[in-house]
Each structure stands twice: as structure tokens, then as C-alpha cells.
Design goal:
Immunoglobulin-like, 5-stranded mixed sheet, 37 strands
């Protein structure tokens, strides 16, 4: 730049730190470096590190045009803190070469990977820059620190949230927001995870109120192993992960792996192939999680309780949709389960209080395999497909036995209780009428009450026939319509 007077400079001037500006002080003309002028612009972070600070005053500002080159997204305003000895982290704090005391401090409330040196070109390894940003943000000491990735950019990287928050060692990343803005994170061959939420287990720490959203994850280059997951999510409370799309997920891996002490968190609009939800022991359990409108093929759950799966598509002709072991209180509502593969595999054991309703399609003849005690499978009951509790009116062709309720192929023996229900059956022809209350429990049916409403109706005999039907046999033919109403269903009816 040609030397200019101070009045000729503005924030649009592209200057090198060594350029000189003549100013007059007490009648004497002095040559002052551009780097020492308030409001001057600097081309890069490297140039900022080379500035002479001998004539700087505390809180003076400069504007950096880019991290490497002007316009690359890594620039922004900085101010000079003349007493700081903070560690240079390559983004929010910059140390001038050879200067022990005094730091350039970035002025912003939202931080991006480019501010820490990420190139976001899809081929450069940006892990060091991105991790420096995340480590800074989670230790910043301000609840709700925000990190913004740049929309449409591609970052080849992985990152971890592992450090305790500096203002509260019992928590990590309290209220922190990490917004992907539909950028792509590309996993590397050496990565087990692209995003890892892994605060310390000792002393036990949590990510409280963490909010991560808006990422496309590319796992194509990552190893095909059970330990591989696009996102590993551990020890969180009151957190949210949403709007995540995973591609290239290896067959043995998981798009999302949730483990160890995760509580009261929401996972929404996650699109991948496999999700694992696991706790190691009752002390190290995972519970009270909700999956909302997630589209995938399979959940694998072990040592968990109070899990809700609501909405979303799980269509598959080859993969079992729910592989369950040591699961208590799983609720599945309003999902699309089309496909011939088994829906609920409970063969590993210790599955209780599995409750599903208003789900459509799927399962073929294998809606459930294994034993799920104290459970209710409303979507497979003839009159509960559209409504949790419903009724139907049948025109019986003769004395019977007439099928009046169907379990759609599921066995009623072997410890299952999906057939448990309290059912009311009523009929009449204008001269003779009755109302019976039945308790269906496993492979048996008991008449709780039998009432003549008018006239002299024929005798009624109820039975479970085969493995999936409730039948009614009349003592004599009654030209009538028979109404069957499912009053309640599930364990303990």
C-alpha cells in the first residue's frame, strides 16, 4: 500500500502491518505502522501475529480480513488486551510473535470453524481447527455459547465434547448450541465417530441442555465395525439432537450410538440406518429418551427403560426393526413399519411393558418374536388398528364357532400378554338380547359377566382357537348383529 495520511485510511483499506503512515506529533512527523492505528485492517491472522505492539493502547481495535486470505470467513474484529497472558488457541485469542504479555481477542458472540483456521473445502483435514473451536466454546464459561458451521460447506473432520465447563466442573457444555446449518461433516478412515459427546465419567459430568442440529454426516470412508458410529452420545441430560442426515453408514456400525447415563433428552428427525441405545448396568442406565419422527431401519436397545418412539418410517424387508434386551417400558406410537421383517425381537430376554399402538404395516407373520411380558400390541388387534380402543359390528353367519377378534398371527402362548384385553360382546334380534364381558388373558378367555338384556337369548361359548382368534359359539342361531368392543387392553386389564 502507498503510504497515506491517517485521514485517507478507512476500514476498506487493505494494508500490510509493515506499511507506514506519516502523522504529525508536536510538530514532528513520525512514520507509524498501519498495525498500530485504531480501526486499521489486517490481511490475515499470520499478519496479526506479526504486528508491532509497542505503541498500542489497551482496547485498540483492528479488523482482520480473513484467516489465510481476505474473504475466507475467518476474519473479523479483534481488540488488544494489553495485560492478557491467555493461551493462543488460534481463533479467539491470538498471541503476537515474541510478545509475552498482551493478546488480540476476537470480538464476536457466534463462532465458526473458519475463525479457528478451518478451510471447509471437503479435502483439507479440518479436525484441529474444528476441535479448537469446540474446546474453546465448551470451556468459555458462558451458558448458551453458540457455534455456527457455514451452510453448504464440507468439513473433513471429527470433534469431541469432553471438557468440564470451567465455571462448573460437574457439567460440560451447559446450554451450548452447535448449529450445522446443513453443512456436511466428512468422517476420516481413522475415525470411530464424527461427533462424540463424551464428558468425563470420573468425576461424573454431564452435557446439560446441549443442542446439536443441522448436520449431514458422511461415513463413507469410516471402518465397517461395531464400534463405528456417526455420533456417539454419552452422559447427557435435558439435551437435544435434531435434523441429522447420515450417508455411507457401514453395515456393522450405527448412525447414532447413545450410551451411559443419558436422561430426559430428545432426538428428532434423525435419518440413518441404525440407532443403538444402551446402558451398561442399572446404575449406569439410559432412560426417559424420546425419538420423534426419526427415519431408519433398526433400533438396538439394551439395559434401557422409559423410551418413547413416536412417528417416523421404519420400512424394511430384511432388518428387524427393534432388537431388544433388558428393556422396560418401551412405547412405540404412530410409526410406519411397512415390510416383511420382524418388528419386535425380544428373544434375548428381559423385555417388559412394551406398549405399541397406531402403527401401520409391517411384520408379516412375525410382529413379535420372543417374550414381552406385561405388554400391549394394539396395532395388531383387529379393532385397534385405527384407534387404541375400538368396536365393530359383525353379522354372524350361524351358530359358529364364529371368529369375533383376531390377533393377526401372533401366538397367544409362551408368556406373551399382547392378547390381554377386556372385551364386551353384545347382540340381539329385537326379541332376545345379551351383553357379555370377557377377559382375554394369554391363551385363555374368561366370561367375567353374562347378562340377559331382554327375552331368552341362546347360550354363548367363547374360546381361543388356533393361535390368534377369539371365537363365539351360539347355542342356537340368533339372526342378529353382534357388537364387539375392546374396552381396555394390555397388562393388568
Amino acid at each position: 500500500m502507498t503510504d497515506k495520511t491517517i485521514s485517507q485510511l478507512d476500514r476498506t483499506t487493505v494494508a500490510n502491518p509493515s506499511d507506514l503512515v506519516p502523522i504529525v506529533q508536536s510538530g514532528t512527523t513520525k512514520a507509524i505502522q498501519v498495525s498500530n492505528l485504531i480501526g486499521s485492517t489486517i490481511t490475515s491472522i499470520a499478519a496479526l501475529k506479526a504486528i508491532s505492539v509497542t505503541e498500542l493502547s489497551n482496547n485498540e481495535e483492528v479488523y482482520v480480513l480473513g484467516y489465510y486470505t481476505p474473504g475466507d470467513g475467518g476474519g473479523g474484529p479483534f481488540y488488544w488486551n494489553s495485560t492478557s497472558t491467555a493461551t493462543d488457541n488460534g481463533g479467539s485469542v491470538i498471541q503476537v510473535t515474541g510478545v509475552a504479555t498482551g493478546r488480540w481477542v476476537r470480538l464476536t458472540t457466534v463462532y465458526t470453524p473458519e475463525m479457528f483456521g478451518a478451510k471447509a473445502d471437503g479435502s483439507t483435514d479440518d479436525t484441529t481447527a474444528v476441535q479448537a473451536l469446540i474446546t474453546f466454546a465448551e470451556n468459555f464459561g458462558v451458558v448458551g455459547t453458540a457455534v455456527d458451521f457455514t451452510q453448504g460447506k464440507k468439513y473433513k473432520c471429527s470433534f469431541s465434547l469432553t471438557s468440564p465447563n470451567s465455571t462448573n466442573p460437574s457439567t460440560a457444555a451447559t446450554g451450548m448450541q452447535i448449529r450445522g446449518n446443513k453443512c456436511t461433516l466428512i468422517g476420516r478412515a481413522a475415525d470411530n465417530n464424527i461427533i462424540k459427546v463424551n464428558p468425563p465419567a470420573s468425576p461424573l459430568s454431564y452435557c446439560n441442555g446441549l443442542d446439536i442440529s443441522g448436520f449431514d454426516l458422511d461415513m463413507t470412508a469410516m471402518a465397517n465395525a461395531a464400534s463405528t458410529a456417526g455420533i456417539l452420545w454419552q452422559r447427557s441430560y435435558g439435551s437435544k439432537l435434531h435434523d441429522i442426515h447420515v450417508i455411507g453408514e457401514p453395515a456393522s456400525g450405527f448412525g447414532l450410538d447413545i450410551e451411559h447415563n443419558c436422561y430426559t433428552s430428545l432426538f428428532e428427525n434423525i435419518n440413518c440406518t441404525n440407532i443403538k441405545v444402551q446402558g451398561n448396568t442399572p446404575v449406569d442406565a439410559t432412560s426417559t429418551l424420546t425419538f420423534l419422527n426419526c427415519n431408519l431401519f433398526r433400533y438396538t436397545m439394551d439395559a434401557v427403560f422409559s423410551i418413547n418412539v413416536i412417528g417416523g418410517a421404519m420400512e424394511s424387508n430384511s432388518l428387524t426393526r427393534f432388537v431388544l434386551n433388558n428393556v422396560d417400558h418401551l412405547t412405540v406410537l404412530g410409526c410406519d413399519l411397512a415390510g416383511s421383517a420382524t418388528v419386535f425381537d425380544c428373544t434375548s430376554g428381559n423385555v417388559t411393558s412394551l406398549w405399541e399402538a397406531n402403527n401401520v404395516g409391517g411384520g408379516g407373520a412375525n410382529w413379535v418374536t420372543g417374550v414381552a411380558a406385561g405388554s400391549y400390541f394394539g396395532s395388531r388387534s383387529k379393532y385397534n388398528r385405527a384407534n387404541l380402543y375400538g368396536s365393530d359390528v359383525l353379522a354372524l353367519p350361524g351358530v359358529g364357532p364364529n371368529v369375533i377378534w383376531t390377533f393377526y398371527g401372533e401366538s397367544t402362548g409362551g408368556g406373551f400378554t399382547q392378547s390381554d384385553a377386556l372385551i364386551q360382546v353384545s347382540g340381539g334380534d329385537g326379541s332376545n338380547g345379551y351383553t357379555d364381558l370377557l377377559l382375554v388373558a394369554g391363551s385363555t378367555v374368561k366370561t367375567v359377566s353374562s347378562n340377559t338384556t331382554y327375552g331368552a337369548p341362546p347360550t354363548r361359548t367363547y374360546a381361543i382357537t388356533g393361535s390368534n382368534t377369539l371365537t363365539l359359539t351360539l347355542g342356537s342361531y340368533l339372526a342378529q348383529n353382534t357388537k364387539v368392543t375392546v374396552i381396555s387392553a394390555g397388562s393388568g386389564v
